[in-house]
Amino acid sequence: MNLQPVNNHRPDRNYIPPGFKNAINDDETSEEYFLNMGPQHPSTHGVLRLVVKLNGENVLEVVPHLGYVHRSVEKVAENQTYLQNIHLTDRLDYLSSHINNLGYCLAIEQALDIGVPERGEYIRVMVSELQRIQSHLLWWGVSGMDLGAVTTFLYGFKEREIITDIFEELCGARLTMNFFRPGGSFADVPNTFIPRVRDVIKRMHLALDEYKILLTDNIIFRERTRAIGILSREKALSYGCSGAVLRASGVSYDVRRNDPYSIYDRFDFEVPTGTVGGCFDRYQLKMEEMAQSVRILEQAVETFPNGPYRSREMPAYKLPRGIYYSQVETARGLLGTYIVAEGGPKPYRVKFRSPCFSNLSALNEMAAGHKIADLVTILATLDFVVPEIDR
């Protein structure tokens, strides 16, 4: 952490860093100063800089500064073919790579009116839900570690590695994974896929009970998260929040249920919703989301069909002139893909609607009035991935 007084010698009470609304208090007894949290700091979950205005340990205001991992993904997409652009999406939120791929493929399928075989749809749903669990397991382990419970990081990776091994067998990658294509996926799943998914289901039932004992019911953890970082329903909607951040504030919205894509409308699952909108609500929602993902997987393995995994493959993808949009529910919320096509092999414009960007925008609303340590707790429950914010 880099502590910065307002001025090293004679305090200039009129100086305000860029982005701040309020001037420094003229009260000579105040202890107001600015603290740079990041861009390289373990509590920021990535290369993010937070300029925090403090009075002692009390947070008065937080202004995020972005752009440290900006890679011009949306601009690069204008100079690559539609098929080449799929690989860019798994580098946005690298913990939801498969779901990002799916969102982009859905926009292409909409433009070209490409169908997906039933087996291909089942593969998409199962891989997406495995990805959701894998992402949440990393979040759970890191969140506990942020609050001092280092053991959770080790426990969370036990089951996460099993899912990562499945993905490695599918596509050869363990992080920026690339598997889906317009019309299905680039390959069929191996014979070991269903047995390995059954093993994940069995292990997750036991693991979720274990996690409850280890962290959820821990009195210190509860004291650190309850009534912390509360975001009202109205504020969550006004900031455009989605995912667990929105649902924790009492808004029952999940793209899989409210605007179903693929074959999600065939599966029976619940959309957990909170009431308070605090850190503990967001935590509980994500834990319940893992249980619901397991529930979807249980239904899918019992009805997994035979047949082709992909519809006809096209030699070249040239989208008709027009505007196309798709949206999916990633591990962090609503990811929108917006494509402007001119009829050629490359898009005129590609724009991604990032759930992490909207969720992070509400940080000051949640953190103001809390302590520095509470800011770390709030950051953990927001569960954002910085490259998706920067794009």
Describe the structure in your own words:
With 391 residues, the protein is α+β, with helices and mostly antiparallel strands. The chain has two domains: 2-65, no CATH class; 73-390, Cytochrome-c3 Hydrogenase, chain B. 45% of the residues lie in helices and 13% in strands. The protein contains 15 helices and nine strands. The chain has helices spanning 73-76, 82-89, 97-112, 118-146, 151-171, 193-216, 219-225, 233-238, 244-247, 255-258, 279-302, 355-361, 363-367, 372-382, 386-390, and strands at 2-4, 32-37, 49-55, 58-65, 180-181, 184-185, 322-329, 334-341, 349-353. The chain has a four-stranded antiparallel sheet. It has a three-stranded antiparallel sheet with strand order 7-8-9, covered by helices on one side. The radius of gyration is 22 Å and the shape is globular. Residues 1-15 have low confidence and may be disordered.
